[in-house]
Amino acid sequence: MNSVSCVFHLKIGIIVVVFNNRILYFSKYLLKGGVVMKFKNLYTNEVYKEKQLLADNYEKVVDSNNDFTKVILKIGGFCFFMLFITSMFIPSYYNLRIVYFSVFLILAAFYLLIKLREKYVGIWSIYVVFTAAVVCFTLTGSFITPNDIGVMVLALLLTFPIIVLDKSIRIILTEFFFLVFYISMIYLHKAPSLVIDEIVNSIFSFVLGVTLGEYFRIVRLKNFELERQAHIRETTDVLTQLFNKRKLFDFFIEYENGVYKEPVTAMSILDIDDFKLYNDTYGHQTGDDCLRQIGLCLKKLEGIYHLTFYRYGGEEFVAVLHDPDIADISSVFEKINQAVRNLNISHSAVSKGVVTVSIGVVPIKYNCKPNFEQLLDNADKALYSAKRTGKDKTVIFCDDFNEPDIHGHYSKVHT
């Protein structure tokens, strides 16, 4: 048996072993009982996990696909440009010079499109690149070099499932389409002596690519998820499940650097009234339960009123309003007062008998670059005024802010 025959049988053996392992895996699982239901549950659970990972890490998935797309386009563009240069000096390549230069121009144009319009580019871009590459190399191998063994399509069949991050079913179906298209073309147009080798090589690349792709894909998605969870732990307050102080200052930096694009209409500081007295009366464990309930309440209000809440420290929270069309800012924050009152968290040590919050608010002018340190200082002044005039209210700060009256309305300084 010669070396070529050995390699051929080795490829066949690997294909059989891989398929047998997959069949044994499913068989062992299914033989435990309820064959149809077991298979359905296994498939559903795996699809759900993958779907959840893709959804939770969507931005990183898109960035990863775009990064790989740009790398492939750069490498491909360079290779085809060098092939074009080579074809000018080597006779055997001369007939392909137009093909090489055309592919180079297409890759360069697509790279510039993705580079310039990256935020509009989705998962489709990497599919377009691979599909175009498979079609191009398949046609080249079938009509221009029919007497040579194909290599590039095999490399694409191997790398496509490993590189692309998307739903497994979509990747496998696309890979299968590549395989069928390639086999059909080589069967019709390749030299008969090469057909069997080409078919075995392509099936080998397909099986190996799908198998390795499944493994690497789930590893990459799990790594993304670990990074996401770590980021959540770093920026989320464990007790209230709101953003923490670190996240607040990250927001300040992003906004000042122009990274954060949402409008900022107002900033406020919320403080739980007489919380020290609450802890002294009921104990710190009950105090933590109180903070959890208020955190959950504020979390529900975020989506309703375009607010983002941060636990600033202790019983203090910072709220940022993002609604530029709001006519009456004070009405939004008064609803927060009402929502906390409606929790009916008992506080027998105060006259109202329930836990309440006081709020100091600073409006932010449209298209004005705010000084967040000054905003927090002004919000704190408004909060102090709310505390001094009866608590459980919202006080709005303005440039000529003075002490609010008994109803919590600010007055202007007259000179």
Task: Walk me through this protein's architecture.
The protein has 415 residues and is an alpha+beta fold. The chain has helices spanning 3-30, 35-56, 58-87, 91-94, 97-116, 124-144, 152-163, 168-189, 192-235, 245-256, 275-282, 284-305, 329-341, 372-388, and strands spanning 266-272, 307-313, 316-321, 357-363, 394-396. It has a 5-stranded mixed β-sheet, with helices on both faces. Helix 1 (3-30) packs across helix 9 (192-235) and helix 2 packs across helix 9. The chain is elongated and about 95 Å long.
Strand order in the largest sheet: 2-3-1-4-5
Biggest β-sheet strands, sense, barrel: 5 strands, mixed
- Per DSSP, the total helix count is 14
The counted number of beta strands is 5
Envelope shape: elongated
Structural class: alpha+beta
Radius of gyration, in Å, reads 32 Å
Distance, first to last CA: 106 Å
Q: What does the average pLDDT come to?
A: 82
Order of helices and strands: HHHHHHHHHHEHHEEHEHE
How big a fraction of the residues is strand? 5-15%
* Low-confidence runs of at least 5 consecutive residues: 33-43, 405-415
Task: Give the % helix.
Answer: 55-70%
